[in-house]
Amino acid sequence: MENQQLAIIQQEELNEQDINLLRSGALAIKDKDTEINDIKKNISILRNDVKNLETQRKVAENALIPIMNKGAIDELNISTGKIKYIEREKKTPLNKKNLNNLLESFFMNEDNLNLLINMEGMNNIEIARKRTKYLLEFFDNNSGKKKIVLLKSEFTS
Question: What is the DSSP secondary-structure string of 7-51?
Answer without folding.
Answer: --S--TT--HHHHHHHHHHHHHHHHHHHHHHHHHHHHHHHHHHHH
